[in-house]
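Thread: Newbie trying to understand structure tokens

Hi all, I'm a second-year student working on a class project, and my supervisor (Dr. K.) asked me to get a predicted structure for one chain before our next meeting. I've only ever worked with sequences, so writing a 3D structure as a token string is new to me. If someone could post the tokens and maybe explain what I'm looking at, I'd be very grateful. Here's the chain:
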Amino acid sequence: MAFAVLSEDLILVIFLLSQRTHAPVGGLQPRIVLSHVSKQWRYLSLGSTALWSDILITRKTKIHALRIFLDRAGNHVLDINILHLPTPRRIVPTMRNALSLLSSRAHHWAHLCVIANATTLHEIMPSILNLSLPQLQSFEMTQIKPKSVLHFGPFKFNPESLQILRLRAVTIHLSNPAHLAGLHTLDVEATSCQCMLDQMCLDNLGDATIQLSHPPKMLCLRQLSVMAVIIQFPTFPSLDPTSIVSLKLGGFRGSSPASIPEFVELFKRMASRNLRELELDAVKGFAWDAFILALQTRSPIYHHLESLCFRSLTLGILDMNFAHAFPMLSRISLFKVDPQPLHDLLRVNPNLWSTLLISIDTDE
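---
Reply by user tm_fold:
Sure, no problem. This is what the structure looks like when written as tokens:
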């Protein structure tokens, strides 16, 4: 038997990798199957707290099984995944009981992902807001089939632990803006750009006339992705752009020519000296015009940028100002974008970049 020659440590690594798939084997989770193959495998699986630390909560969750998993996880940090599909209309008692049981172990939560409809989010988030989550490293909340953007808060995060925040069709506010001081990845989609970047630290998110008076709090942010349905100006982000290495902006269109100056300011503000990757997704109309206008400077605006990605937009005419803005560029990726303007630029000026890899509608 091939497994007989493998060390116990290597077998445990294989066990943990199999658990990541969440693919049932005959209706059972992989870790359940593995723990019933042989005495050795059962001994190894039951002795690995990490194997039982990944918790998936659905409307079909069995409370007695959850108790067993938590007991086997011991003091290991927990990855909590709450998935509640649009039916039934209201949260079922078994899920409510599961959340109550998990709350007693909230101090062990390391990762929390909640994917649910509006009704379920309104029911479960108040109980989560009251929890102390000292070890929480990442938090993801997604509203399924949203009819409007939901808002929750105030949240209390540990700035020494929280590193990743991802939100879809929801916004949040915090009891203290310093709770995001350790954040290195922020990903927001189908929400208000202003709420997340400008008014995050305000108690009253409904007053768009309030100007921020506090200094930036997100000083460690390295990856920022904003796919915004709504963007309002002025924008004075609560982050320090100089720390950002990877930036994705999308869903910006610009309703009128009057919005161009504000968009130009936004693109210039986010062009930090440490930025290496820039992606624009569905940036169209006056917002795209503003991006091209922002490139027209004496000094290269994206001096150290190495990778540029465009998705679902129209390039228009690209001139030397475009090339001048990205002197260190080594890769351009185009997805659902006509590459002809880029080809025209390179045909006339083939030596703009010493080494340039161009990928079109592909991963490589």
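A couple of things are worth pointing out once you decode it. The chain has a mean pLDDT of 81. The radius of gyration is 24 Å. Feel free to ask follow-ups in this thread.
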